Amino acid sequence: MELPKGWVESSIAKIAYVLQGYVFPKDRQGKSSGKYPVYKVGDISNSLQQGDVYLTSSKNYIDDDDLLNLKAKLLPAKTVVMAKIGEAIKLNRRAILSTDALIDNNVVGIKAKVGINDKYLYYFYLTVKLGDISQATTVPSVRKIDIENMSIKIPPLAEQHRIVEKIDALFSELDKGVEILQTVKEQLRTYRQSVLKWVFSWELFSGQRELKFIEQQLKNVCFSIVDGDHQAPPQKDSGIPFLVISNINKMVIDFSDTRFVSKEYYDGLNDKRKANIGDILYSVTGSFGIPALVSNNTKFCFQRHIALLKPDKVISKYLFYILQTPQVYIQAKEIATGTAQMTVPIKGLREIKIPVPVNKEEQQQIVKEIESRLSVCDKLEQLVDENLAKADALRQSILKKAFEGRLVPQDPNDEPAEMLLERIKAERAAADQRMKQQKSVKRSKKNG
């Protein structure tokens, strides 16, 4: 597509500084106050989940002495920051530093040079999926040079300001609608939890014939409960899907974005680690407590952060709903170990207690009662999710128009971006020259 008049295509290296994070020693972590915040991937996620573009608080702070000992240089305010390693890359979460701060070595910063609007750069990175340029390793990562070589379309500075102002206004209106949808979704989640809580207390069946229940441990109602292979399998471009927690975090199995392993690896797994229709996946690490029912014959394997339950003395759907109840989650939380990443041990999972009706006909009756109450909830939740997806699509449409020069009108009186880049280049050359002179003076004094 032809560039709009006055625009120019450039590399990130020419218009911004790519700034690396620092290794943040454990013995300096956990300081809840101090002069300078240190931002980690989790801080970026927490900020965006609260609806904040600018990072304003951290779980870690340091003072001048720490800064000196770390031999670290502060990143300036208005630097755009994002994850550069691990699964967090795929989440595409970006934020902007509100003050001078440090970032850890899992985060990368991009600071616009003089003449480039910082928020224009931020909005550009909302259109970029770093996962597409990440290195194909077991742990995805993005190199500094990969970011520097990225192409970006630059409009005149005055137009950059107009674009940012227009996006801000449109996103503000969009955010209001999204907030309402999220509120509705939370209300539906609360209703769902109430229904499931009734299941456990059996208030759902008051007035009906008396049902008899026996408290059972999961190991006594399943003939197998195991987690995934502890050895990370070699990845392939195609083959058997390899599921991680993000593939089940909506309580259904999502095959739309998976890794792959070879058929030979899958065939070599113990049958207990091969899922069949009616089995249940259950997340046990990090975002633990998420069940997903296996509903078709698609072959797959899964990471060790997921457990596979094979029901025996309970029908699958009954166990699926029971695993969603607050009472089961509380038990899982009580036995979870770890700090940064909580894990429900398989031994402990096997010992979680659930009430089980004496016969499977009564279990089926309970499932029927639950589904009759949740069916409307499910339809409403689907409608909310569809509208949230439309909001995301609209957001990307706005950004696409912005970076194609179609969001705001061009002004022929604006200084062309080419002249802006020439000025940035000249200023950089002058700065390099000053640095050489300073080094030369230092050498002269040292030798003098």
Protein architecture, described:
The structure is a single chain. Helix content is 41%, strand content 17%. It is of the alpha+beta class. It has a five-stranded mixed β-sheet, sandwiched between helices. It has a four-stranded antiparallel β-sheet with strand order 12-18-15-16. The longest helix is centred in the middle third of the chain and has 45 residues, at 157-201.
Features:
alpha+beta; 13 helices; 448 residues
User: Tell me about the biggest sheet?
Assistant: 5 strands, mixed
Tell me the helix content: 40-55%
Would you report the number of β strands? 19
Reading side by side through the largest sheet, how are the strands ordered? 2-9-6-7-4
Report the principal-axis shape.
elongated
Structural class: alpha+beta
The fraction of residues in strands falls at: 15-25%
Mean residue pLDDT:
89
Count of DSSP H/I helices? 13
Radius of gyration: 27 Å
